[in-house]
Amino acid sequence: MSTQLSTQPAADHTVSRPGRAWAYVGVLAGVTGIASIQLSMSASPTYDPGAPPTAESILGEMGQFIPQLIGFHVTTVLTALLMIVFTAGLKRRLDRQAPAGSILPTVAMLGLAGTASVLVLGSGLNTEFVFGLSQPELMVASDVSFYSHWVATIPWLWVLAGLSGFALGLAALRGAAPRWIGVVGLVLGGLTMLTGLSPLQYLAGFVGPVWLLVTAIGFAVGDRTKTA
Question: N or C: which end of the chain has fewer CB within 10 A?
């Protein structure tokens, strides 16, 4: 029996390295996130100080933006879906090297999950108004005016993504991720949080998607960690 045991191959205890598909999904989320903001901007009515807008004028102008609003809806919801996948992968990646008991991976996860929820809510009025604008005579002008502000504000609230970036930065400084990714998180994540804290909080929508895109690219092609 001992001879048979000695000739058996030793068990392979090597832990395979998780794939990086989640990071490439994050790249797509960054691209669609930027597209969502751009489409939101393109669907905003013009405000001329020389001719103060009325609810009726906004109703008439918003009816010209139906294609942009459809694109805005698709890219915003798609960003939220892709972001959840990236969030799960990021949490797993940070857990592998973060100090035992660190809350930073969880904070990074919750910030992005919260941002995904905000994006879904930010697109939540689209179905009613996109189809309604094709029949403006059935729409209440004041409702459409409110919707124009909703589209131009709520989906821009990326402040929680800034918290994720900052948490990632702190975790990276403690060895949980490449240091340069951490610096990007501290700078862009911190800027996203600061703009989100300001009364002009929608400006976080300019910075948050850029942080997500750069970070996801970093994990997809620049993460040289060898251990699982």
Answer: N
